[in-house]
Amino acid sequence: MKAVRILERVLTALPMSILMLLLVFAFVRLLPGDPVDIMMGQAGNVSQAEIDALRRELHLDRPLAEQLSIFVRGLLRGDLGYSFREQRPVAAIIGEAFPATVELALAGLLFALLVGLPIGVLSRR
């Protein structure tokens, strides 16, 4: 019976995960401005050949369905992609923020234990 419940949850989570993946992909593509123009705008005077090369490198010259396929395959390999704004790998950006995130989560947990637990015990009386 427990295995059936776990299977139900997995089968429910799978479509939701796919939907979230599609939404993230769509929202990134719907952001205003062309990523290549944004990246090259910081470089100054750039030739059309350089713009086209970057567009090919980022797979932005391909149809959306193929871009989605490349995005999903990258995620399955653990490649979170490249930040257009920061111009570096997303994994590196997340890695830099991870220690602060863990610190905040542990501080919140400690606060919940030190404040919430006594309040819960007192309210039970």
TrEMBL record:
Keyword Ion transport applies: no
Membrane protein topology class: Multi-pass membrane protein
GO cellular component, one term: plasma membrane
Residues that span the membrane, as ranges: 12-31, 104-122
Keyword Transmembrane helix in record: yes
Compartment list: Cell membrane
Pfam families: BPD_transp_1_N (PF19300)
Domain ABC transporter type 1 GsiC-like N-terminal: 6-105
Primary subcellular site in the record, as a coarse category: membrane
Keywords attached to this entry: Cell membrane, Membrane, Transmembrane, Transmembrane helix, Transport
Matches recorded under InterPro entries: BPD_transp_1_N
Protein name, UniProt field: ABC transporter type 1 GsiC-like N-terminal domain-containing protein
Organism: Symbiobacterium thermophilum
Source organism phylogeny: Bacteria, Bacillati, Bacillota, Clostridia, Eubacteriales
